[in-house]
Specification:
The chain is built from 15 helices and ten strands. By secondary structure, it is an alpha+beta fold. The termini are far apart.
Length: 485
């Protein structure tokens, strides 16, 4: 079997079926004749021959497919087809940039640095400030606390009786849970490891709308004092420490000196709510370890509260209800000072004041992008001024004004796209460096990535006009035939 002929027959499959029926036999015959000649010329000639064959297939096969679906590739009007005109403009633009590579490279580098910096910072701003929290119906989640006043606008921790009072009587809060951070030592056959952990009430994962990857989450009986110790493992800890062993559910692990039964595994990608506990929390235990004294103490504030608003309830309505519940709580306990219950959107509590630092920084980078656009426009204006004679000659020999404008627009778009692509690649590099060396107090930084919205911003920055060339002014008229030389 002749491999080269078989390869050519395979390449013919790149053409539409109708084209193969009309020209396939003739093309195979022509190829066989040409191949016989090239085989006698030696290996180097055969390599050049195959290079021409592949280039011809790459160029002609797409055209035939466009013809087969009715796109006007070869149909010519006064100016040729749209596709041919676009290809011709692109080819001419590439030639123009190749003749002046220095200016083109400076423009591309300038745009790449500006777009790369702006894209990197926008990705951080979007991931930290704008992207919704990674929970189901995250807009309904609120943080619940005490010590809230209109003046300070801050929420502090709850005592156990306060949390129980709100959970029992609130109608604005569809469901509520509490949590307390703790450091835990995981022991076993491997070396002991200290991990961030949290003690949570049984509704915690229900409030967040999270389902287990394996096993189950807490149930009401797990919160009863004296209940068997149970733990839920973070997905990352499960894969790293226990090699993703599914049989770990139901087995016992030791935290500190206490054996705990593993009842469930969190799904991959779950992020702990940073407004309440550390984002690196790996171990989750129930409230059964709370002693009776802590459960009854009305002034020991150590619980972070989280809740989901009832359907149709606003934050302001929930705040009004909690104000009324605060009065009931004061009357029931006979306290002299109110607890000042309050709620706030979980996302606002998570972000805090970081926007006051990020937004001015983004404004500075946006200004850098505008300066880069101005510098690019200046360079393009200089180039356009140098080409006025060229434009005049092309106009004199019949080039329409819109045809010249389209050519220069193509050149600007090409160089802008090149700068945008380089800037986007640079953004990926700078983004990783920023995450590695950024301050630890930036919330949600672990969640930040190059979202499609970030890439859309990069595209928008790329399509910012890269200049206002002088083709908006008419080119100088050609010299009159009667005028003296």
């Amino acid at each position: 079997m002749d491999i080269e002929k078989a390869l050519f027959r395979f390449l013919l499959l790149l053409y539409p079926r109708r084209f193969r029926r009309e020209h396939g036999v003739e093309m195979r015959r022509f190829f066989a004749e040409a191949l016989g000649i090239e085989r006698q010329a030696g290996p180097r000639a055969r390599a050049r021959f195959w290079l021409h064959i592949l280039l011809d297939f790459a160029r002609s096969a797409p055209r035939e497919h466009l013809d087969s679906i009715g796109l006007p590739w070869r149909r010519r009007g006064p100016q040729g087809s749209v596709i041919e005109s676009l290809v011709h403009d692109t080819r001419m633009a590439l030639r123009g940039h190749a003749k002046r590579p220095g200016v083109s490279l400076v423009i591309i580098a300038t745009m790449a640095v500006a777009i790369g910096g702006a894209t990197t910072l926008f990705s951080v701003i979007y991931g930290v400030l704008l992207a919704p929290l990674p929970y189901a119906q995250a807009g309904e989640l609120v943080r619940v606390g005490a010590g809230f006043t209109a003046e300070n606008g801050r929420l502090y921790a709850l005592a156990v009786p306060e949390a129980a009072h709100l959970e029992e009587r609130s109608r604005a809060l569809q469901s509520m849970a509490v949590t307390a951070s703790a450091s835990m030592t995981l022991r076993g056959e491997a070396e002991p490891e200290i991990h961030a952990g949290a003690m949570v009430s049984w509704r915690f994962f229900e409030v967040l709308g999270v389902r287990p990857a394996l096993g189950r989450f807490f149930v009401p009986d797990d919160d009863i004092p004296g209940a068997p110790p149970v733990v839920v493992l973070d997905h990352g800890l499960w894969t790293q420490r226990f090699a993703g062993d599914r049989s770990i559910v139901g087995e016992t692990v030791t935290l500190g000196q206490t054996p705990f039964t593993v009842i469930g595994i969190l799904p991959a990608g779950f992020r702990a709510p940073e407004a309440l506990v550390s984002s690196q929390t790996k171990l989750w235990i129930s409230m059964s370890f709370l002693g009776e004294e802590m459960r009854q103490d009305p002034i020991d504030h150590f619980l972070g509260g989280i809740a989901r608003l009832s359907p149709g309830t606003s934050v302001s309505a929930a705040q009004a209800e909690l104000h009324a519940l605060d009065a009931q709580y004061v009357e029931r306990l006979g306290r002299s000072e109110p607890s000042r219950f309050g709620v706030a959107p979980l996302q606002a509590e998570t972000v805090g004041d970081i926007g006051q630092a990020l937004l001015p920084l983004f404004g500075a980078v946006a200004l850098l992008l505008l300066i880069a656009c101005a510098n690019t426009a200046t360079l393009l204006l200089i180039r356009a001024a140098e080409r006025r004679d060229e434009m005049a000659i092309r106009s004199a020999i019949g080039g329409a004004r819109w045809r010249l404008v389209r050519q220069l627009l193509t050149e600007s778009v090409l160089i802008g796209v090149a700068g945008g692509l380089c800037g986007t690649l640079l953004a990926f590099i700078v983004f990783d460096i920023f995450k590695a060396f950024s301050p630890e107090n930036i919330p949600r930084l672990a969640e930040v990535s190059m979202h499609r919205q970030v890439l859309a911003f990069s595209l928008a920055a790329t399509l910012v006009p890269t200049g206002r060339p002088s083709f908006f002014a008419p080119p100088p008229p050609p010299p009159s035939p009667s005028a003296p030389a």
